[in-house]
Specification:
By secondary structure, this protein is an alpha+beta fold. Helix content is 27%, strand content 25%. Strands 7-6-10-8-9 form a five-stranded mixed sheet. It has a three-stranded antiparallel sheet with strand order 2-1-5, with helices on one face. A hairpin with a 5-residue loop joins strand 6 (128-132) and strand 7.
């Protein structure tokens, strides 16, 4: 009788209970898209937006005496020859150049201005933040075509306590924050390039600690 009891329960476990457990596990793992789902997205990085701390090279063609190299102040404004307290933060270099031309037109006939960003810091909203079990958690200035691997190199990789494949990328798309699972162990430790993705301004990468 005892043998029949265990055989009967083994049958129910193998054919009914075990498949249910496996299904629940797979469903839980699929709750967040894996890295390839991010890589196929079509979002394009916007034009660079000037932020406090950025170093600017301002060229006024034919007027080298009023060309200058300046830093954007913490309040987002700049001072340059013939110009005081001009808002720079929040503008593209082309937009700032146009505003400088308008200011200089009072003193210079038909000024032509070019603005180049030589030292990048960027606004906080455009920086990439890495938190958790990175060797050097920090906020990074976004650079065009920056990838997840580039970010991991800059933060010194993972700590020995990191659960890299449980890491989460938080990205704001059309004003809505979305979460994606990324596979940092596969990328950093195993060299699986399929786990690499393109980063966008404002991305937040959270690397959790391993349970054991």
């Amino acid at each position: 009788m005892l043998k029949i009891f265990f055989k009967s329960h083994k049958f129910w476990f193998l054919y009914f209970v075990q498949p249910m457990i496996i299904s629940i596990f797979l469903f839980g793992c699929a709750s967040k898209p894996l890295a390839p789902a991010i890589a196929t997205q079509t979002e394009k990085a916007p034009y660079y937006i000037i932020g406090p701390g950025d170093q600017l090279e301002i060229f006024v063609w034919g007027n080298e005496d009023i060309s200058s190299s300046i830093a954007v102040r913490p309040d987002g404004r700049i001072n340059s020859p013939l110009i005081e307290d001009l808002q720079a933060s929040g503008k593209t270099p082309a937009e700032l150049a146009h505003d400088i031309e308008n200011r200089l037109s009072t003193f210079v006939k038909t000024p032509i201005v070019t603005v180049m960003v030589s030292g990048f810091v960027g606004r906080f909203s455009e920086q990439i933040r890495v938190a958790g079990e990175a060797a050097e958690p920090q906020a990074l200035s976004y650079i065009e075509n920056m990838s997840l691997l580039d970010v991991m190199i800059q933060v010194g990789g993972l700590t020995e306590f990191a659960a890299g494949n449980r890491s989460t990328l938080i990205r704001t798309v059309n004003g809505v924050a979305k979460e994606y699972r990324v596979r940092l162990d596969d990328l950093v430790k195993s060299g699986d390039i399929t786990a690499n993705i393109q980063m966008l301004p404002g991305d937040i990468l959270i690397i959790p600690e391993s349970f054991f």
